[in-house]
Amino acid sequence: MVAAFLTVLFDGVAYGSLLFVISVGMSVTMGLMNFINLAHGAFAMFGGYLAIWLMTQWGFPFAATLPAVMVAFALVGVVVERVLYRRVSRMGPLDQVLFTIGLAFMATAAMTWRWGSSQQNVALPAVLTGQVHVLGLGLGAYRMFLIAVVVAITIALQLLVRRTRFGAQLRAAVDHRDAAAGLGIPINHLFSLTFALGSALAALGGALGIEVLGLDPSFAFKYVVYFLLVVVVGGEGSIFGGAVAAVALGVFDVVGKYYIPRVGAFLIYALMVVLLLVFPRGLFGRRR
Amino acid sequence: VTRLAPTLPTDRWRLADTLLWLFPIACFFAFPDHLVLGSQVMITALFALSLDLILGYAGIVSLGHAAFFGLGAYTAGLLAVHGWGEPLTGLACAAAVAAAAGFATSFLVIRGRDLAQLMITLGIGQLLFEAANKASSVTGGVDGMPDVPVWKLAGVFGFDLAGETAFWYSAAVTFLGFLLARRIVHSPVGRRLIVVFTVGAALAGVAGALLAQTTQFVGLDVLGFQRSASVLIMLALGGTGRLYGAFFGAGLFMLMQDYLARQNPFYWELWIGLLLVAVVLFGRGGVLGGIDVIRERLARRRAP
After folding, report:
1. Burial of residue B69 (number of CB atoms within 10 Å: 0-12, 13-18, 19+)
2. Helix (H) / strand (E) containing B140
3. pLDDT score at A68
4. Three-state DSSP state, A121
């Protein structure tokens, strides 16, 4: 009974960690530029497909695909930001929504054309399959790996934001963009870098998530509500808030679907509406 | 903050209005085999028109407008299933339920800023979708409600496969909806966000009820995110804040969808994506916005 509950809880934490990796980039770019990017899920989807392609066509081992996917999408992020997003990031919210929905549609079409509409499977290395027994609990090895990777990424991000010059500039810009710009902080450059990092993390999340979230062309739209939820509940621009919100969302969703399947996702959306009304800036959002 | 349309047109019925409204009548005689598509276009146009009130006139970007459409569809469907299939009173009930929901949620929606509004409308839409999904004993869940027994219109005109009754019924209701929307946006009441939001919700409910009655089917998709997103896209394609944009957008969107999706759903997604990106980057104001620009240029050339 207790053991079963702990296992479900563990799955929820693993699921939440994935949501965090994918949505953290979205949160920071939203906090920085008020940019509503509904195509963020498409980056995660592309990351998943690139991982599949590298492994099946080029024989990459799983461990090597992860950094490869990150590097590739950091570069893609820089290009996309320069060519497309810079023009849209100063427009109104409606234009941003329409533009990024348009991109997500095209991404869905492109992946359907190349890969078909069926689910993709990933061949995990033997080490990461099966279960690991910890204190009498049977925990999925892959989910443990996921949590470990995400904890490492979170620590690295916190160090980056708290301890480096880049992080200080980023914090200043998120707090008050115009004042930061007045002090000579290069906002556009900062946005470019943040966008690239966010894209890389989303793509990594997509590659890591094939086993947990699944991967088919509908991915770009299917999970975008969850990513938005993480951003809004955690507070735009808050890394810590995003992490808490993502894990809470993951646990809530998995535990809810497991124990009260009749209510299911209803609970999540009800919670979201209530939270938004009580905390319009998110649980950990900055005050203006 | 109340945002008004860029140019408030005068509240006078012009020749162009009459010509535009003669178009559906012409379509009836020109394309007698496509009446079903015709009524779907008009129902969708009414739905887009209801969003135009909220987006174009009240300035609220909604990602959950299907909530009101779906409420209307389920209201009309459930009434008919439980023994009251009279179409007109069904429409009235649908409007009342959707208006009540719109009024209640308007207070939540107008509180926040852009992103919060987006998320609250999205959240309310998803909430209703999941509620309808889970309450399958009432709504039929994923299977929906097939064969909704709708009575004959005025006791005479039945809803049949040829779709003649459905066509004229949809056209008439859409026209009345248009007159109401036009009245609202040209009156001082139209500057109150809560009023506009409530009327928008009511019209969306009527559109949903129309779909339920004319197709005699209510599926979960009436509440889906896809429907909320596509109506937003149509309105952007046609042009927001102009009432007629809803008609151009819905027509263009539905005809393209009908043509392209029949060939390959992949083409449809690709084209709609490209079109959206192009509209945002180059074609501000959609089709009607583009026509305005051309007319201005012509007028400037003619002026000395």
Report:
1. buried
2. none
3. 94
4. coil
**Low-confidence spans in chain A with pLDDT less than 50:** 287-288
Q: pLDDT at position A286, please?
A: 55
Enter the tokens of residue A54: 């590298």
User: Which amino acid type is present at position B33?
Assistant: D
Residues of B whose CB is below 8 A from A91: 280
**Inter-chain residue contact B115 with A102, CB threshold 8 Å:** no
Would the CB atoms of A221 and B225 count as touching at under 8 Å? yes
DSSP letter string over A168-208? HHHHHHHH-HHHHHHTT--HHHHHHHHHHHHHHHHHHHHHH
pLDDT tens figures, A75-92: 999 999 888 888 887 788
DSSP state of A139: E
Residue B111 and residue A97: Cβ atoms within 8 Å?
Answer: no
Q: Do A98 and B276 touch (CB under 8 A)?
A: yes
Residues of B in contact with A92 (CB under 8 A): 114
- Residues 6 or more apart whose CB falls under 8 angstroms from that of B192 comprise B2
pLDDT at B10: 57
Taking CA–CA distances from B240, the nearest residue in chain A reads A94
Of B116, B120, B280, the CB nearest to A98: B280
Indicate the residue type of A67: P
Would you call B240 and A36 a contact, using CB atoms and an 8 Å cutoff? no
The pLDDT assigned to B1 comes to 39
CB B82 within 8 A of CB B215: no
B221/B214 Cα distance (integer angstroms): 16
- DSSP H helix total and E strand total for chain A: 13, 2
With a threshold of 0.85, tell me whether the complex ipTM lies above it.
Answer: no
Residue at A131: amino acid letter: Q
Please name every residue paired with A137 in a beta bridge, in sequence order, or none if there are none.
Answer: A134
Residue B90: its pLDDT value, please? 94
User: How near does any CA of chain A get to the CA of B151, in Å?
Assistant: 34
Q: Residues A26, A32, A38, A44: what is their CA dihedral angle, to the nearest 10 degrees?
A: -30
Predicted model pTM: 0.85
Residue A283's pLDDT is: 66
DSSP state of B75: H
Handedness of CA B110, B220, B216, B236 (dihedral sign): positive
DSSP secondary structure letter of residue B223:
G
Hunting for tokens 């993709």 — which residue is that? A120
Residue B102 to residue B58: CA distance in whole angstroms: 13
pLDDT at site A287: 47
pLDDT computed for residue A207 by the predictor: 92
* Intervals of chain B under pLDDT 70: 1-11, 304
The phi and psi torsions of B193 (rounded to 5 degrees) equal: -55, -40
How many residues are recorded in chain B?
304
Residue A102 CB burial class (10 angstroms; 0-12, 13-18, ≥19): buried
H-run or E-run covering A131: strand A131-134
- Positive or negative, the CA dihedral B7, B11, B12, B18 is positive
Q: Rounded to a whole number, what is the distance in Å from the CA of A243 to chain B's nearest CA?
A: 19
CA B252 – CA B41 distance, rounded (Å): 9
Enter the tokens of residue B262.
Answer: 């029949």
pLDDT of residue A205: 92
B35/B195 Cα distance (integer angstroms): 34
